[in-house]
Amino acid sequence: MFKKELHLKKKHWDEITVEQLERKMNEEKFDKEFIEEILKIFKERIEKHGKEAFGKWIYNLHFRVPEEFQNEQISISVYEKYHKWLEGEVIKLENETKMSWEIQTEDLQDLDNKARKAQLVIRHRLSEIVLDLLE
């Protein structure tokens, strides 16, 4: 007897849009002002490099911090602006992964704790959204 396997068509990076990212961030209850800030960055990236390059970039981000947030002072500023939301997400990530935020950010230990927390949430949550959109 032969089994037929159903293969769902997986989306490709060029099918990810800013509108889909925004919708998903809203569904995941990202801070509204943070959504606006990151969408502005995405749109600037598209204007500078084009949609295709943006799609490849977001697809390959995979649990890395976007370049725009890698600077320690920028990450601290993001933390200070959105600390309530970020702290809630840090707690959720600790519960989801069963690891402290310190362990999850061992690769960032040279940074200030505020920057580490901001970068942890940004890289983890953005990557989850992209993975969800690709399903």
TrEMBL record:
Domain of life: Bacteria
Protein name as catalogued: Uncharacterized protein
